[in-house]
Amino acid sequence: MLCLKFATTSGLVHVARSDSNCTEMNHIIWTNLNHIQIIIAQLGRKNRALIGKAPEICFDEITELAAEILQCPVSFIEFMDADRQWFKSKYGLTDDYIETPRDIAICATTICQSDLLTVNDLTEDDRFANNPLVSSAPNIRFYAGMPLISPDGAAVGTICAVDFEKREISQSQKEALRRLSRQVMAQLELRRALKDADKAVKSREELYQALLNEKQALDQFMVNMLPASIAEELKRDGKVEPKYIDEASIMFCDFVGFTKLTETMSPQNLIDLLHQCFCKFDSIVAKHGVEKIKTIGDAYMCVAGATGDQEDHATRLCMAALEMIGYLNKTNRTREKLRMPTWDMRVGIHSGPVIAGVVGENKFTFDVWGDAVNIAALMEQNSERGRVNISESTQHRVSQQFQLEDRGLVPTRKKGDLRMFFVS
User: Fold this and answer.
1) CA distance 77 to 184
2) In the predicted model, is pLDDT for residue 33 greater than 90?
3) Distance (Å, rounded) from C-alpha 293 to C-alpha 227?
4) Residue 31's pLDDT band (boundaries 50, 70, 90)?
């Protein structure tokens, strides 16, 4: 009585047969081989969670099944390169038996074939009789091996069974080994496909992250160029509706004697100093919730109350103006010690209604328009170096927060006499 073990989804099934009943054995072999498809499918699903790791359980079960079907004490699945034979899975070999040199590997002959190689007695085959694995320990006698051929026709390894006694196998057993070789290749192709899918997913994630970074950079660029609420409206609707603001405060700043400075300084130094000053102004106005509109040459324009919180807009703008003057006074003291020309600035502020919106298609620009803007420019033109000059409209809104110096009526070119105040 001979006992065979076949792999199933729930474990190993033992099947007993009489040596004389070959027909029954063949039926059992073919029936159990059909179960392999189910095993491979289940193992494939498990391998999806193990991308990049060799699915050893699957290969080990196929290797053991090959040994049981061919009734051999040793079987293995091996891959081969130019120098060595490496055991992917093995049954009946010790754990430390990992590889052998290719020049003594019997599988080196099998891998060059397109079909099954069986040798009932290796000592009687001239190709292998002098092989050290045959002529000395472990004295292999029987060999059956099937090349593992990929879909593109490349042989990558073999699935083999060996015995230490000469023997013969039936046609059904040979066909079973062929089918097992196809299942090994199916598992290898599954692993390769899963790796490719993993790479594709990672590539897509990297692309998505790159696009997300680009979007975030673009969003940040828009926020740097436009007020946050305006940028959000532009992203959402593709355009910005003009808005009438019934009350806002506008400030203009201008460096005194800038034309003369351009004649005494190199272009690089001039731009560097402008950049330094305007960057500081940007941080100051942002701290006070004021929105920078633009720079025009050496002039700096900003507005409070046009894009968000309208409460105390005039107060916040005056505080920003005084801090900007204070920054210049500090830097001028250092420049005087170094006997360098000082940079003095006039500031003008007016409060009133404006229209706010975005103009342009390729280059968006947020701006404000209205008579209040023109009066704010007059406040700056009629200010003095190092002083913040405000209109009567602004004075009504900040008189409780600042000490003001009434300048009385000051004649202007476009608006006649206007009452003005210096903020201390």
Assistant:
1) 8
2) no
3) 9
4) very low
What 3-state class would DSSP assign to 13? Answer: strand
The 8 Å CB, 24+ separation contacts for 132-138 are 132/104, 133/100, 133/104, 133/106, 138/164
Tell me how far CA of residue 12 lies from CA of 5, 27, 35, 41, in angstroms.
6, 17, 11, 17
Question: Which amino acid makes up residue 328?
Answer: L
Q: Are strands 155-163 and 243-255 parallel, antiparallel or unpaired?
A: unpaired
> What are the structure tokens assigned to 396, written together?
């009504």
Round the average pLDDT of the chain to a whole number and report it.
Answer: 84
Are 271 and 290 a contacting pair, CB within 8 Å? no
- 82-125 residue pLDDT tens: 888 899 999 999 888 888 899 999 999 999 989 999 999 999 99
Q: What CA–CA distance (Å, rounded) separates 90 from 362?
A: 68
* Residue of 153, 228, 213, 208 whose CA lies nearest to 185: 153
Query: 340 vs 259, 334, 337, 358, CA distance in Å?
Result: 16, 9, 8, 40
By C-alpha distance, which of 129, 67, 77 is closest to 104?
Answer: 129
Task: Please indicate whether residue 177 or residue 191 has the higher confidence score (pLDDT).
Answer: 177
Higher-pLDDT residue of 55 and 373 is 373
Q: For residue 417, is it left (φ>0), alpha (ψ between -120 and 50) or beta?
A: beta
How far from chain centre, in Å, is Cα 237? 28
The 10s digit of each residue's pLDDT in 308-347 is 777 899 999 999 999 999 999 999 999 899 888 889 999 9
Q: For the whole model, what pTM was predicted?
A: 0.55
Q: Which of 177, 172, 231 is nearest to 28 (CA)?
A: 172
**Distance, CA of 75 to CA of 231 (rounded, Å):** 69
Chain centroid to CA 410: 61
| DSSP per-residue codes, 141-167 | -EEEEEEEE-TTS-EEEEEEEEESS--
Give the Cα separation of 253 and 88 in Å (integer): 78
Nearest to 163 by CA among 146, 140, 133, 145: 140
Residue 362's pLDDT is 67
